Amino acid sequence: MRAVPTPSGSVGYTDHGAGPALVFVHGFLLDKSMWLPQIVHFVPLGYRVLCVDLLGFGDSTPAPGTIPLTAHSAALAAVLDAAGAETATVIGYSIGGQVALDFAAAQPDRLTALVLSGTSAAADGPDVRAERLALADRLAAEGVDDYAEEFLPHLLGARTLRDRPSVVEHALTMIAAADPEGAAAALRGRAERPDYTEVARALTVPSLVVVGAEDSFDRGVLAAELAALIPGSRLAVVADSGHTPSLERPLSFNAELEEFLESVAGAPRPGPLRTR
Ligand SMILES: O=C(O)CC1=CCC(=O)O1
């Protein structure tokens, strides 16, 4: 694990392999370890895989209060600077996808391509915003343990919950480790995020939108709307998956991502394995 200081706190990340940089950004209550199936797949293919802990999660500083998405996307730029990577493909999941959209707006010259999984561009309406703020207060007061039971059936699909116990265990381990103040601060920041619809419309980099076929947050709508906004984007629907296809159906997710990356730049030539 490495760490880089930012004005909003220290940001933890891992850095494996050599080649074109892929930056992975995790979802709410999770951490950078959610991308283990992608590290294992893409490093031997000749990519440099950077997995970042959002401020408030994992090895990043638990920051109380409110963490705006701009602070998370500035943290991605700080990680790229620290890693000496001028540009990267950013792969963001759920809140991480919205951080990736913020990065696309703030650092367009550093973005090679964009992958958005289980996410949407629009701002929250007043009801959803109020729910997020109430949940932030609840998590800060109660911790995450009780909420984990409510969250899990939305995070993972029914098939995963029934037949993939190691995935369920990994998800529960990440959630149990989440800092309640950090989670609350991330929720407050997400609730006040801007609308990224125009950012999505203005994207000029190759883009892939991924969604699980049984994603209960998406309800068969949001990813298709997002893909329709982004000029020339591809939409990949992963069968037998809920909200988190990279963990639930890693072989399918990795195959979609690999094909997309090859279509963008051709396959890199695998180099020596390096872990920093
Ligand atoms: O989209 C949501 O509100 C819920 C969610 C699951 C993972 C994440 O980042 O957010």
TrEMBL record:
<dbReference type="InterPro" id="IPR000073">
    <property type="entry name" value="AB_hydrolase_1"/>
</dbReference>
<protein>
    <submittedName>
        <fullName>3-oxoadipate enol-lactonase 2</fullName>
        <ecNumber>3.1.1.24</ecNumber>
    </submittedName>
</protein>
<dbReference type="InterPro" id="IPR050266">
    <property type="entry name" value="AB_hydrolase_sf"/>
</dbReference>
<feature type="domain" description="AB hydrolase-1">
    <location>
        <begin position="20"/>
        <end position="250"/>
    </location>
</feature>
<dbReference type="GO" id="GO:0047570">
    <property type="term" value="F:3-oxoadipate enol-lactonase activity"/>
</dbReference>
<keyword id="KW-0378">Hydrolase</keyword>
<dbReference type="InterPro" id="IPR029058">
    <property type="entry name" value="AB_hydrolase_fold"/>
</dbReference>
<dbReference type="Pfam" id="PF00561">
    <property type="entry name" value="Abhydrolase_1"/>
</dbReference>
<dbReference type="InterPro" id="IPR000639">
    <property type="entry name" value="Epox_hydrolase-like"/>
</dbReference>
